[in-house]
Amino acid sequence: MARVLVVDDERSIRNSLKEILEYEKHEVILAENGTEAIDTLRSNEFDVMLLDIKMPGIDGNEVLDEVVQSYPGLPVIMISGHGNVDTAVAAIKKGAYDFIEKPLDLNRLLVTLRNAMDRKELVHETKVLRKKISKNYEMVGDSPAISQIKDMIERVAPTDARVLITGENGTGKEVVARWLHDKSPRADKPFVEVNCAAIPSELIESELFGHEKGAFTSANKQRKGKFEQADGGTIFLDEIGDMSLSAQAKVLRALQENKITRVGSDKDINVDVRVLAATNKNLKEEIETKQFREDLYHRLSVILIHVPTLNERKDDIPLLADYFITQICNEYGVPKVEIEKNALEELQKINWTGNIREFRNVIERLLILCNKKIEKKDVELYARPLGGVE
User: CATH topology of 3-132 equal to that of 136-308?
Assistant: First the structure.
């Protein structure tokens, strides 16, 4: 059942739509002009809106502009007795879900209404899933080093500046990249991650820039690369220090010209992509040994963000422990487990060579093996990371 706002200046049409939709078990509210429709929207929530275009005073197009700006999740089905293809296209370009001509076809109306409701539900589910996913990329901690990074992200995220993120494995470089994307104007566009270290050097160019059918032996069809997939959004080049020199040259061109060329093609493709990169290597040393291009380094490092090791931010361990305990207990569907203060102190003594990634694994191990709450003896028994206890 949907809550539907019907807006039409003809009483007979309003009443007919109300009768039809209520028969289908929908709740219907009526408005006879644009002004009444906008007032009704301000004090009520609706699942779908049926909106006539030609009305005295504020017409349907003006109401649609208000809905798109102030109620972007509300599907609007435009209806008109003076419709043509141009009118329909214009309405949909403005943000309408669909357009139906008068006299209304009952079956089409009901199908369109159902599809609009399905779309609204899908959009809602997508937002919920995005929130769940984003929770996995929270930046936890209030140590000076982490506070400085958070402040840097707030300043840099709204821009298109390229960012080079450095730090050891497991420190949370991807979390920084996700935050930069999620807090940017590109947040509703793709975030495409490429692990440069996991792709064979002979395939990295095809992976980044795509290829044409027949470009090489196994190229059975045309394929878009990661840069094209990220168009309008953000591409995150993780472990960029492991990228081949030939691929580095093509990435440099993409950054300079905002163009890429698929493997096996001589046609340029324009791309609008923000580039974030990360590495656990010292790129200046890689430049000295001719393993990394200096001109690419300077292109990538407009902003430099260094993520500290967990050993450099041990004051954050209580917050991190609470965060991971909550997260893991929720995943397991069990009540949150308490951790004693002396157990936290014991965790702070450990040399965390694997950083945040290792810390989370240890917390999960403790939750599985401890009884009711995590005590100091549990940490002494089960938290034995490589490197031992200091």
Answer: yes
Closest CA to 24 of 100, 139, 113, 152: 113
Give every CB contact of residue 186 below 8 A, 6+ residues apart in sequence: 232, 233, 234, 274
> Which amino acid would we find at residue 1?
M
Dist. CA 222–CA 264, nearest whole Å: 10
Tally of CB atoms within 10 A around 116: 22
Cα separation, 167 vs 305, whole angstroms: 9
Q: Per DSSP, what are the bridge partners of residue 163? A: 276, 303
Query: Among candidates 358, 361, 356, which has minimal Cα distance to 387?
Result: 358
Q: What is the pLDDT of residue 385?
A: 47
Decide if pLDDT at 134 tops 70.
no
Task: Give mean pLDDT, residues 94-121.
Answer: 88
Average pLDDT for 356-361: 95
Instruction: Give the helix ranges, DSSP H, for the chain.
Output: 11-23, 34-43, 60-70, 85-94, 106-135, 144-156, 173-182, 204-209, 226-229, 245-257, 283-288, 294-300, 317-332, 341-348, 355-369, 376-382
CATH class of 136-308: alpha beta
- pLDDT computed for residue 388 by the predictor: 44
CA distance 280 to 197: 11
Q: Is 3-132 in CATH node 3.30.310.10?
A: no
For CA atoms 118, 234, 72, 50, give the dihedral sign.
negative
CA-to-CA distance for 375 and 390, rounded, in angstroms? 19
SS3 at position 65 = helix
The CA-CA-CA angle for residues 316, 319, 325, to 5°, reads 130
Contacts of 152 (CB under 8 A, 6+ apart): 303, 305
Identify the band that residue 390 occupies on the pLDDT scale cut at 50, 70 and 90.
very low
**Which of these CATH numbers, 3.40.190.10, 1.10.10.60, 1.10.8.60, 2.60.40.10, describes 311-382?**
1.10.8.60
Angle between helices 34-43 and 60-70 (to 10 degrees): 20
Measured between alpha carbons, how far is 146 from 316 in angstroms, rounded to an integer?
A: 9
Tens digit of each residue's pLDDT (9 = 90 or more) over 255-311: 999 999 998 888 899 999 999 999 999 999 999 999 999 999 999 999 999 999 999
Q: Domain limits of the chain?
A: 3-132, 136-308, 311-382
From its phi and psi, is residue 314 left (phi > 0), alpha (psi between -120 and 50) or beta?
Answer: alpha
